[in-house]
Automatic annotation (TrEMBL):
Residues 4-335 form the Isopropylmalate dehydrogenase-like domain. SMART domains: Iso_dh. Keywords: Oxidoreductase. Belongs to the isocitrate and isopropylmalate dehydrogenases family. This is Isocitrate dehydrogenase. InterPro entries: IsoCit/isopropylmalate_DH_CS (IPR019818), IsoPropMal-DH-like_dom (IPR024084).
Length: 340
């Protein structure tokens, strides 16, 4: 029996509380080892506690090092940094892991099983940008810069190869744009090749330019296994891969650091359907499954994955985003039956 594991739980904004209630109900029924420290972040926290990322939440995360997080609405307006970007940088959550697998039959692609590993703290997301004045126009030119360090390129590519080894994957594809961004993207490619050489004979190395990769993902996604890439390319490609298997309602993600891990759905707070009880809880459910595997409970993770597969395929329980009519509660109840 695993000991109890303290973890921070942030329900989030919009559909967050609805899908989080579904996930915690199922985790409880599964006997998951987590002891939740409930904390707030996002729009709700800004309204109630005066900060979109209160100190109490940051303290809890620093203490537990393990987080299940619902989507957060980033307040619009100057002076608000994305909370998600802040969390990644503050806790050095350098690897963003987004698995994509075909589960729902009858979709456009029947054979997708790949993982996008995105560098999470450098690249163009450093958002060092400003305007430059030309004549009377103070905003005539928009200027932006990014940076990639050799150390971080090494760390993220090594993470991807280690992930491949641990998860029985065969191939890692380095995705870059070093033909044009010879330095910014070149350092990633060159450092990546050095790391890959250490895995020669065990894990195959492949290289793709990002635009060719985008096209190939649409034409032949089954060619891909593990993709590792820099921040902006990873952001775009991982939404593309989510689209291959049913959209954002089916896309989980993990943000991993040396000592911390934050698990979440890839989607946002979906204000258009919030409060209607129709949100798909499965992306967050899959994130919870990744969290179980992360703490060594592969047994529970496999049971949860099996349950999700069963309700989607055998039982045909699907929310509206997947072309069905099921409510969030229908999914919860079906899953509770399936995991027993
Ligand atoms: P969104 O992902 O919230 O919604 C995009 C579309 O997908 C909407 O039509 C929505 O109804 C649908 N959708 C999303 N999740 C769904 C689910 N689980 N079930 C069914 N349908 C679902 O993107 P957006 O509208 O651009 O962003 C809304 C807010 O969320 C913004 O404030 C944004 O900053 C924030 N956001 C947060 C995160 C995060 O916390 N990780 C990620 C992305 C966006």
């Amino acid at each position: 029996m695993t000991d109890k594991i303290p973890a921070t739980l942030i329900s989030g904004d919009g559909i967050g509380p609805e899908i989080m209630a579904s996930v915690t109900t199922v985790l409880d029924a599964l006997g998951a080892p987590f002891v939740w420290d409930h904390q707030n972040a996002g729009m709700g926290a800004l309204e109630n506690q005066g900060s979109a990322l209160p100190d109490a939440t940051l303290d809890s995360i620093a203490r537990t090092g393990l987080v299940l997080k619902g989507p957060l609405t980033t307040p619009v307006g100057k002076g608000f940094r994305s909370i998600n970007v802040t969390l990644r940088q503050q806790f050095d959550l350098y690897a963003n892991v987004r698995p994509t697998q075909t589960i729902v039959p009858g979709g456009r692609y029947s054979n997708v099983d790949l993982v996008v590993i995105r560098e999470n703290v450098e690249g163009l997301y450093a958002a060092m940008e400003h305007y430059m004045r030309v004549g009377d126009d103070p905003e005539a030119v928009a200027y932006g810069a990014g940076f990639n360090t050799r150390a971080e390129c090494n760390r993220i590519v090594r993470f991807a190869f280690e992930y491949a080894v641990k998860n029985g994957r065969k191939k890692v594809t380095l995705v870059h744009k070093a033909n044009i961004l010879k330095i910014l993207s070149g350092i990633f490619l060159h450092e990546g090749r050095r790391v890959a050489a250490e895995y020669e004979g065990r894990i195959e190395l492949e290289e793709r330019i990002v635009d060719a990769c985008a096209m190939e993902l649409v034409i032949k996604p089954e060619n891909y296994d593990v993709i590792v890439t820099t921040n902006l390319f990873g952001d775009i490609l991982s939404d593309l891969t989510a689209g291959l298997v049913g959209g954002l309602g089916m896309a989980p993600g993990a943000n991993i650091g040396e000592k911390m891990a934050v698990f979440e759905a890839v989607h946002g707070s979906a204000p258009d359907i919030a409060g209607k009880g129709v949100a798909n809880p499965l992306a967050l459910m899959m994130a919870a499954s990744m969290m179980l595997a992360h703490v060594g409970r592969q047994d529970l993770s496999a049971r949860l994955d099996g349950g999700m597969k069963q309700i989607l395929t055998t039982d045909g329980i699907r929310t509206r985003d997947l072309g069905g009519t099921a409510t969030t509660e229908d999914v919860t109840q079906a899953l509770l039956r399936a995991i027993h």
